[in-house]
Amino acid sequence: MYRKTSTEILRDGLAAAWPICMGYFPIGMALGVLGQQAGLGPAWIGLMSVLVFAGSAQFIAVAMLDGGASATAIILTTLVVNFRHFLMSSALAVPLRGIGRRFLLLFAYGITDESFAVNMTRFRAGNWDRWRALVVHQTANTTWVLATILGSLVGSLIPPGAFGIDFALPGMFIALLVLQLHGRAYIFTGILAAGLAVIWKLLIPGDSYIVGAAVLAASGGYLLRRQKRLRETTG
Amino acid sequence: MSFKHYLLILLGMGAVTYLPRLLPLLLLSQRQMPDWLVDWLELIPVAILAALLAPTLLFDGQSGHIDLLRPQLWVAVPTFLFALKTRSLGGTVMVGMGLYWLAGLL
C-alpha cells in the first residue's frame, strides 16, 4: 500500500475533510442550541457527541429527552436511525480487506454518511489509503464535537443560515453523487434509489427509506449489470 | 434527570451506533467475499447518496410534504450541472452555497 510522510497523509486527509467540516459546523451548532434549550449543558452535549457521534440520531435523542421519553425508546430509535451504517460498513470492507482488527475498531467509530461518501469516492479514484481515510474520520469527528459544545455555549448569538452554509452538505452530496456515476449501472441505480426513496418516504413515515431504497436500488442495478453481462457472453 | 441516568442512555445509544458501524467491517474484511457481493456493494455508495439526497431536496422538513418550490431543489439543478461539468468537489460546494445564499436574498 502506498504511504508517504505523515504530514502528507494529514494534508490529504484534511483537504478531503473540509467540505464535511463546513457542513458539520452549523448543524453541530444548531444541535448545541437545541441541547441547551432542553437542559443539556455544554459538557453533557459534548459527551453525547463523543459517545454517539451520529447527527440525526442526536437531534432525535435531544427532542426525545426534552419530551421525557424512556431510555429504551431513545436507544431503540437510535438503533433504527443508524442502521444504514450497517450497509456502509459492509461496503467499506471491500477497500479495507485484510486490514488488522485494531485499526478497524478505531476506524469504525468515525463512519458517517458524509465520511463514507468522501472515502468511498477517493478509494475508487485510487491514491487513497486507510490512514488518509482515518484522518477524514477524526477531523470530521473533532469538528462535530467542538461545534456542538460551541453551539450550546454561544450558538443562539449567531444568525442561522448565513452565507448559504446550510447548503454545504447537500452541495457536497450532489458532487459526490456525480463522482459516483461510473457507468450505466451506476446512473440507473442512482435514479432508481432517488425515486424509490421519495415514494418510500411518502408511504412509510420515518427514516426506513434510506436503507430500503438503497438496498432495492443496488439490487436493481446489480441485476441490470448481470443481464448485460449474460447477454454479452451468450450473444 | 440525573447524570447517571443520562450516561446510561448515552452508553446505550453509543453501543447501538457503534456496532452496526463495526460488525460488517470486522466480519467481511477478514475473508474473501463472493464476487456477486462485491459487485452489489460497489453500487451501495451511489444508492445511499441518491436515497439520502432526493428526499432532502424534495420534502419540507417541517411539514413532511413534498414542496416543489423549495430553494434547495432549484439550487440543486445548477449545482448538479456544475458538478457534472467540473467534477470538482470543493468548487461544487462553494457554488452550491453561493447560489443558495443568493436564492435566500431573492
TrEMBL record, chain A:
Main location: membrane
Transmembrane spans: 15-34, 43-65, 71-94, 134-155, 161-179, 186-203, 209-225
Alphabetical keyword list: Cell membrane, Membrane, Transmembrane, Transmembrane helix, Transport
GO cellular component: plasma membrane
UniProt keyword annotation of GTP-binding present: no
GO biological process: L-valine transmembrane transport
Keyword Transmembrane belongs to the record: yes
Membrane topology: Multi-pass membrane protein
InterPro entries documented for this protein: Brnchd-chn_aa_trnsp_permease
Location relative to the cell: Cell membrane
PANTHER family: INNER MEMBRANE PROTEIN YGAZ (PTHR34979)
Family: Belongs to the AzlC family.
Name of the molecule in the record: 4-azaleucine resistance transporter AzlC
TrEMBL record, chain B:
Domain of life where this protein originates: Bacteria
Transmembrane residue ranges: 6-28, 40-59, 79-103
Official protein name in the record: Branched-subunit amino acid transport protein
Record's keyword terms, sorted: Membrane, Transmembrane, Transmembrane helix
